[in-house]
Give the backbone structure.
Amino acid sequence: MEHVKVPGACGTFLQAAAARPPGCRFLLRLHDRNIMPDTHQIGGITLHLSSADTTAGEWIGQTDVLRQLLACWLVVDDRDLPLTPRIVGTPGTGKTTLAVSGARCREQDLYIYQCTADTRPEDLLITPVLAENGRIAYHASPLVTAMIRGGVCVLDEGNRMSEKSWASLAPLLDHRRYVESIVAGITIPAHRDFRCAVTMNDDESTFEIPDYILSRLQPTLTPGHPSRDDEMAILQYHLPFADEQILELTVDFLQQSHSLNLDFSTRDGINLLRFALKRLAQQSDHPVSRDRAWREALEKCLGEDALDLESLAERRRRSLGGSAVPMGLGDFFFRPDDPLHPDLDDGAREDEEDFYEEEEDDFDEEDSF
Ligand SMILES: Nc1ncnc2c1ncn2[C@@H]1O[C@H](COP(=O)(O)OP(=O)(O)OP(=O)(O)O)[C@@H](O)[C@H]1O
Ligand SMILES: [Mg+2]
């Protein structure tokens, strides 16, 4: 069985993370890597390799989802293969951070490929570049570099990429574990230690990934919104210079937003806090109140709607209700809020009845004048 940090050890890693300067553990590894050759010969072609990513990725809280990711990348027998999971969720919920942190837990080099609608198959694999001497130099993408060096590649925002580009990865993502570069005319097998994960946003500006690719990207991991304590720890980690009260204000806001199913994320909290702290620092000669700076930051970062989450949630609920598709026979004969609607839930029916009773009372009162 492969020797890899077991999930329990990774938990220790997470606790120890706060005690050491961000990224110091990785600098050692990356220093080792610096003495690694930056070219690789294959099929008579010299490939120029990409550099590894050095950002620190500390995953705080939600240890289950990190363990699930690490399990995907385990190999439990010589005949076993690692899985390539897709990490799915709304923007700013930590999908990329989770994947980066998984790579750090395994102490492997990390390569991130940012997928876009313009990504062509050759961009994903090998790009020919005109060198100074007029010859063609072949540059390996972060993905191919990870395959050669035995690193981890995160295909970030994978569903921004078209089907054509995904097609070139089909053999890599199944038992074949290789890619074929048409431009360089070579087949590149993946190193045994190569691991991959794909992050995806569930917004509308993305492509539909074909089923034959989705079936190679399993399982689906979904980091959710963090608990109150975890969210506080995340904000403290990113903004250790922020005072307790302004952190509390932000965590209260984020937790209320999560409970109302609104899309404001931890990243939104980090950004608004940064702006509020900068505004407070800027006006040290005539100090503005903390609350005023925080509310201003909230409005400027997240818009006026964010000032009143309850109303925003109510408006969302109404607009979603308005666009709902009729599902049952009753929908053809009754309005959704009609008390005679057979599918109206009891709570709504009671509300409706209370409303009519109140209206009747009002009429009675009016009648009595
Ligand atoms: N559990 C967590 N631990 C540490 N940091 C976190 C966590 N969750 C979110 N963050 C922080 O929140 C910010 C947003 O995270 P990240 O960029 O990973 O989100 P994302 O889901 O990949 O967003 P997008 O869909 O826009 O790419 C980052 O600064 C990240 O460090
Ligand atoms: Mg991301």
